[in-house]
Amino acid sequence: MKLNEYLVEEEFVTAKVGAFANPDAVGESNKGTLACTPYRLVYVNGSDVTDISFQGVNSIEYSEPQYPQRYLNWGLAGIFGGLLIAAFGILVDGGIPIPNSAMWILSSIFVLAGVGVLVQGYLLRRGSLDVHTPNKTYTFTSDEDGLAEIGHTLRGYEMEKK
Whole-prediction pTM value? Predict the structure, then answer.
């Protein structure tokens, strides 16, 4: 379903951005459209539609694009774990029944996995918009600049109605 197919006839879009509903999603097939109309926030991704009325929004949080902390933590843990395995292999060289080459292979796997996680985290640097309603918190992420504009537009409409 496309955004224009979902909106009613007289409804118009005031701000729109390509976004992900899952912070860990990658690829264009997982990317949908987050749009702000005068009455609601609509996210369309394929046949899935999320429709959030402005009346149900308690608060919003916007974060500038940043490196995902969990990727940094796991990446460094993998590298550090690989270095510890290598250090252990050097310290007990021949003192345990595990071949030294297996220690280096295991160490290399940990270090490469840690570097891979760090690279993946770098590719997932995105801004995020959290929309809090009484029943659920919706998190949208985007690497495009328009995500902050969605938050400003939403608050602007809220101020108009007061």
Answer: 0.74
